[in-house]
User: Fold these one by one.
Assistant:
Number 1:
Amino acid sequence: MASSLSSILVLTIFISSLSLPPSLVLAKDPCHFPAIFNFGDSNSDTGGLSAAFGQAGPPHGQSFFGSPAGRYCDGRLVIDFIAESLGLPYISAFLDSTGTNFTHGANFATAGSTIRPQNTTLHQSGFSPISLNVQSYEFHDFLARSQVVRKRGGVFETLMPKQEYFSNALYTFDIGQNDLTAGYFLNMSTDEVKAYVPDVLSQFKTVVQNIYGQGGRYFWIHNTGPVGCLPYVFERVPILASQVDEYGCASPFNEVAEFFNRELKKAVEQLRKDLPLAAITYVDVYSVKYSLISNGKKLGFPKPLRTCCGHGGKFNFNLNVGCGGKIKKQGKEVLIAPACQNPAAHVNWDGVHFTQAANQYIFERIVDGSFSDPPTPLNMACYRKGH
Ligand SMILES: *[C@@H]1O[C@H](CO)[C@@H](O)[C@H](O)[C@H]1NC(C)=O
Ligand SMILES: *[C@@H]1O[C@H](CO)[C@@H](O)[C@H](O)[C@H]1NC(C)=O
Ligand SMILES: *[C@@H]1O[C@H](CO)[C@@H](O)[C@H](O)[C@H]1NC(C)=O
């Protein structure tokens, strides 16, 4: 009797542990991130560059927002899907002083941002003056001033994050691609670009350390994508036919991106040692983007390198006339770089950026931790590696 009871008990425990997902067996509660603070470039810009240098025009935003929404995309970016999945509103651009609400975070990213300051203007080089160090100054200022403003009460209190949100927030990063193209656009060789990557990453580490020093604890860091699969790079920097891979991507630029990513991963490992209370997740977005492009046909994206919004050439891309570009014909403005019929069947939006459909695909692959080190899902990113 006793033995049959205990075997029933054992069996019950066995069955119930089988039917539970592993995360529940470990009994860790999902994290509660009350805010997101994002640092980056156009891959996660939700209106920063638009606020400072003029709005991104139509047809940007057409697939989701119905009109331009400060994003270089037909709709949502990966950072928007991240905010949605954490139950937070889309995060407002810090530089956007009209109609913004920073209760649940702020976005310091601007299109064209690099980690290192570029010593050129936007109009000279196309790179944003809001490099990562500037984004970090903005964050520092926001941390202090948001609390001063909150104390005014009334509507101001409803527009700013609470003090404690800063230590509980998720700090997200997606930056580095423009540091690589910056060298190539100055006619540097691959070896010359590689040679400055350590300096770029040392400046990246400094910013993460600064944020930690101000109380940030949870970091979600995207690596850089296969920049050699983007028309704005391979149409501008000459390469040999033998350097084009089987999917049409330019190998030298992708190899530099992979080199950057290996070094970034080492930098993250160093940061884990230097910042003992930080939970830092490194996310291999490169692999997701490359597999999306290389399996494009199977996944419903028959021409993954060809832009949806553009004009001319093999890739529907022209270096001088970008997405939404117009010319004057007999006094009338004529759209010569319109969007395609079905953006959802394209990976590439405008030669530089991914479409909403691609961003959603990327988000869905990374959200469960399959591409993360440690393999932490997004909603568990407050737990430290090995804890
Ligand atoms: C910008 O100029 C400073 C000072 O001359 C230099 O240290 C830095 O490396 C330059 N940045 C780049 C990206 O070349
Ligand atoms: C700002 O957003 C928060 C959270 O969504 C909301 O509670 C608050 O009312 C908003 N403030 C204004 C002025 O709309
Ligand atoms: C790079 O090389 C091209 C072709 O030789 C030249 O037209 C361009 O001016 C050079 N750019 C820079 C920044 O030196």
Number 2:
Amino acid sequence: MGKLIFLTVMVIFSLSLAILPTAGYASKTDPLYTDDNDESWFHNLCHGNEKFAKLHFYVQDLLKGENQTVYEVARANITSNSATSFGSVRVLDNPMTAGPDINSEAVGRFQGIVTAADLEILSFSMNINFVFTSGRFRGSSISISGMNQVMNEQRELPVIGGTGAFRFARGYVITTTYFSDPDMEHNVLEYTIYVTYVHQSSMSSCRANI
Ligand SMILES: *[C@@H]1O[C@H](CO)[C@@H](O)[C@H](O)[C@H]1NC(C)=O
Ligand SMILES: *[C@@H]1O[C@H](CO)[C@@H](O)[C@H](O)[C@H]1NC(C)=O
């Protein structure tokens, strides 16, 4: 009986391998590619069937105007009197671009919910999905969840998972504010994602390692 269940699981597993998309490193021609730093230390962390990707892009935060992409959907009765806008919940669908210019190549959408969740410091609880629409990872997504203290120059949030090429993803993102317009109409955020994930074509040897 145990053997039969094992065999059934293996057959389902093998079948699923046939329909998985291919995955790999962002190539130098990919709009998400960056070679800013030597990341060899990070590559050395990867072993077995894990692959590594470093993805770099910008997020266009449009708070007002005809192309607004960020909308408040809820607030607390203290939000207006709170120095940190505590309790404000916003839904957003921001363009992701290869360069800082809003008219540079579109690479995806930055979709999710951002909640002002700190009574003392300007800090947002982020539940965000990076949905890639171009390049090698088109159709795949990466999800992050964590606190974002936006007054800090550099912020770090955990990657909590992914879909498509990024199944079994884990890692982190580093984000900085690249540009913030004084009228608070348009912010540009720089994002770099450091992610490991299971290379789909080597999942069969993953199985052998269990
Ligand atoms: C809004 O988007 C359209 C289409 O991309 C563009 O032509 C227009 O200039 C944008 N408006 C503003 C205020 O940026
Ligand atoms: C906010 O609502 C709570 C009850 O829900 C009430 O006790 C409190 O006084 C309200 N605060 C303000 C600033 O209106």
